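Re: that chain you flagged

S.,

Sorry for the slow reply, it's been a week of failed gels. I finally had a moment to sit down with the sequence you sent. For the record, here it is as I used it:
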Amino acid sequence: MSKVICPWNLISDFVTDAFVGYGVPREEAEICTDVLLESDKRGIESHGCNRFKPIYIDRIVAGIQQPTTEFEILKETPTTAVIDGHDGMGQVIGVKAMQMAIDKAKQYGMGMVAVRNSCHYGIAGYYATMATQQGCIGMTGTNARPSVAPTFGVEGMFGTNPFTIGIPTDEKFDFIFDCATSITQNGKIEYYERIKEDVHPGTIIGSNGEPIEGDAGVALKKIRAGEAALTTLGGIGEALGGYKGYGFAMAVELFSAMLQDGEYGKALDGKDENGNIRPYHLGHYFIAIDTEHFLGEDIARKKAGEIIRSVRNSKKAPDAERIYTAGEKEYEIWKERENSGVPITEAVQQEIIEIRNKLGLDYVFPWEEGYTPYPEKVKASSSIERK
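Prediction finished late last night. Pasting the C-alpha cells below so you have them in one place:
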C-alpha cells in the first residue's frame, strides 16, 4: 500500500483542529496531538495516525469517550494519588498523572499515581520519557480490552498490558523500554490489516489451541469475536518461556486495577451485559523516581550511559551489524523523519479526508491535487531527543 509523506506541521495542525472540532478543548487537543504524533516520530505507526480516527474520534462520536476531561483526585498523600479520569481523553489524563508523579518525586524522592476510568492513552513510552527528561526514572503501564490468553489458555483474559520503563542517560536519547507483554498487540494487527500483511506465526492462538495464521483482518475478527487470542511474550505454552510474559502481563493488570479499585479483565471489553458499547474504564499507573535523591542526576546519567554502551560494544553475532539498546532505533527513525514528516497510508488518507470534509476544515494534503508546501512555522521536535 502506497504511503505519502505529510509534513509534521500540517498533520499536527490538522489533528489538533480535528480534536477541537469534536469537542476537545484546544489546550487538551494539543496534548492529544503531541502524544499521538510522537508515536509516528518514533516509528511506532500502529499507535499514531493509524489510530486517530478509529480509536479516538469514533469513540467520541459513539459517546463512549468524553472529549472534555475531568481529572478528579480521589485520594492524595505526599507521595501517592488516586485519580478518576471519568472516561476522558487518555492522553490528557496520562500527561497530568505522570507530571503529578514526577512533582511528588522531585519533592520526596518517589511518586506514584494510579488512575481509573480512563481511555486509551497512546504510547506508554511518552510518559516514561516525560520522567527521564526531568531527571527521573519513569515507569508506567495500562490494562486494556481482553485479547491475550494466559499460558495454557485460549481465551483473552487481559490486555496487551505494556510494561514500560524509562531511565535517564548521558546520551542523545534516554533508555526507553516500551513494549507490550504479548508478542504483538491489537494495534499492530490492525496495522497489518491496513497494509495487507499476514499475521506473524505464533502470535495468535485459536480457541482450539492451534496457531492462527494468514489474513490479519480475519485474525482480528476472530480475536474480537472471542474465537482467538494473542499470545504472551514467549509464545504458546512454556517451552520458550510464555509463562514469563504471562507473569509480566498479570503484574501490569494488578498494578493497573488493584490500587484504585478499577475494572479489569472481561469488564474492559467495552460492552455492557446486553452487548451495547460502553466506555472502556481503563486503569493506568505512573511511577517516578528522582535521581537527585540518590547521588544526583549527572552521576546517574553518566553511569546509565556507561552501562548501555558497554552492552552495545559487546561481541556481536557473525551476521549482526550492531547491538541496540532500548530507545536507540526510535531515536534514529526520528532523525530520519525529522525534516520530512509522517508516512500516511491510503486507508488513513481516506479517513483524514473524511474528517476534514465533515468538519469543513480548510486543509489540502500532499496526496491531493492543488497541494502547495505547508508553511513551516517552527522546527519539528520530538520528546525522544534529550533536551
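What I noticed first: The longest strand covers residues 110-118.

Talk soon,
D.
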